[in-house]
Amino acid sequence: MVEVQLDCGAPQRHLVGVRLTVAPRLDRLRLRLPAWTPGSYLIRDYVRHLEGLQAHQGGRALPLVRLTPACWELACDPTAGPIDLRYGVMATELSVRTCHMDAQHAFLALAAVVLEVEGERWSPHRLQLSLPSGWQAFVPLPVDGQGGWTARSFDQLIDTPVEAGPHQQIQFAVGGIPHRWVTWGGCAGGAEWLWARFPSLISDVQQVCLRCCQLMGEERPASNTYLFVLHLLDEGYGGLEHDDSTVLVYGRQRFEQPQGYRRFLQLVAHEYLHQWNVRRLRPQELCPIDYHQPAVVPSLWFAEGITSYVDQLLPLAAGLSSADDLLQDLGDDLSRYRLTPGRLVQSLRTSSQEAWVKLYKADAYSADSQVSYYLKGAVVALCLDLQLRRDGASLPLVLQQLWSSHGRWGRGYSEADLIQAFAHHSPALATQLPAWLDGVDDPDLDGYLCDVGLRLEAEMASTPWAGLSLQMKDGSLVAQRVWRDGPAEQAGVMVGDEVLALAGQRLRQPAQLAEALQADAPQRLLICRRSQVLSLRLQAQPPGVERYRLVAQASINAQQREAQRRWLTLDNGRDGTPTATALATP
């Protein structure tokens, strides 16, 4: 067993003291720190936060030879007793996938903290924590009866998020399985504000969790125990899934928006559903996970896109939002998708394969050359669901069968397995789905929406289009985005240019650009780049589509109404019963 001791006793230093104790099996030992954490497909080089690594055995210092930036080797004596490894990890980066520690709390993503000892990946690891007085730790691992916790392997250990502080936890059950909820209030008002504002939050979360189980055809969760950790900040949005837990970050400002609480429940649904889809129903490229280099996973569209699609339907099916809410939320996503130029450049499969180098490294030009596998994956999931329903099946039915054939047994799936599973219920998908994955042409979204009595309605902009958006930066008005092949790019504008004037009118605020634009003749645009003032010729285009709204058709027939009902209730296509209200028609 590898012993892991973490010292968080001086949180104001933001430095976690780490001690690993291991009995060597051979005369040479290698140590490696993971470079990324599953669920967040980006090499993060956690080693940049590690300092002061030392190794001792029997009171004698052991020289460490660095083989790579995150890998060391040492010579040792297997008969001389355990090796003692000590080092520090700076915890100053606040996110769901990094470490952060201050006087209020400690959050540790253990992939960024614990060295993997060669040959001990599948050995038990015992975890112990040293905390300030009055703090307690919230850890989704079995307790060891000695004040610590035991992981069955290194994989389970670093899949374990650790939250610690003077927090309170709330206990509830889903399908008879114990759940815990812990909130760190890292904003004004803290957790007290949350419970006063949303007293039904836990019962609502419970209903969403139950609906996730039902979606997968189960009476209880996949986990035997589950921990929710919420970081309530002023601003922020996101989450990271684990086998037996999830860590959420959500901003108070988001909660205070009209749709904020509904979007929060969608985030809960998304991360909770991941205990099935992606954690246990896992791509074969992540079986097992290589923590030290990227793995090309062409099916991330399924892992994230399917989950992103159903997370909007789950609160509705649980009775916690309305059909009109769904129109707004789904419509916002469909609008964002149709207005993303990169969807005509990057295919969905390529988006999945390039996650490591594009999605998490987006810049001001990314929207013109790439599309998120979350966003387009959700659009394809909608089309898959409605195509399956044409043939008497559904996306929930396919999910349930994939869970039975692959997820329940930890059998990694290939993309071919997914295509076969869909085509089994709808033969047309044997050719349609690969085309949707490999090509850049849109699926017949309008046709599928018509099946359930919906349509996308375009809203036109009121001003000409320059293919340029501006922002205030350090007191200057600068180009924030320049659309590919748009008027501004054709004129020669680059992201970062300071925009001074248009048609002789000084521009001081972003809104003034639209007010000054004309589409009937070229206009002189004055910019400053690298201290040089340049005069450009800008020919704006007539107003185009500003956004799309998802609306009910003026009238729908009985077949559309029934298809709509079954879709909204996440009926699996076989024997479902309605749990949500059908959309009203005008």
Structure characterization notes:
The chain is of the alpha+beta class and 586 residues long. The protein folds into 4 domains: 2-165, Immunoglobulin-like; 169-276, Neutral Protease, domain 2; 300-458 and 554-568, Neutral Protease, domain 2 (Orthogonal Bundle), CATH 1.10.390; 468-543, Pdz3 Domain. The protein is built from 16 helices and 28 strands. The strands form 7 sheets. A 7-stranded mixed sheet has the order 5-4-8-2-1-12-14. It has a 5-stranded mixed sheet with strand order 16-17-18-20-19. A 4-stranded antiparallel sheet has the order 6-7-3-11, with no helix packed on it. β24 and β25 (505-506) form a beta hairpin. α6 packs antiparallel against α7 (323-338) and α9 (375-390) crosses α13. The protein is globular, with a radius of gyration of 26 Å.
Chart the SSEs and their pairings:
Blueprint: E1 2-7, E2 15-22, E3 28-32, E4 50-57, E5 60-61, E6 64-68, E7 71-75, E8 83-90, E9 100-101, E10 106-109, E11 116-117, E12 125-130, E13 136-138, E14 149-151, H1 154-158, E15 161-165, E16 169-174, E17 177-185, H2 190-197, H3 201-215, E18 226-233, E19 237-241, E20 245-251, H4 252-255, H5 260-273, H6 300-317, H7 323-338, H8 348-353, H9 375-390, H10 395-405, H11 415-425, H12 429-438, H13 445-451, E21 454-460, E22 468-473, E23 476-482, H14 487-491, E24 498-502, E25 505-506, H15 511-516, E26 523-529, E27 532-538, E28 545-552, H16 558-568
Parallel strand pairs: 1-12, 17-18, 18-20
Antiparallel strand pairs: 1-2, 2-8, 3-7, 3-11, 4-5, 4-8, 6-7, 9-10, 10-15, 12-14, 13-15, 16-17, 19-20, 21-28, 22-23, 24-25, 24-26, 26-27
Helix pairs in contact: 3-5, 5-6, 6-7, 6-9, 9-13, 10-11, 11-12
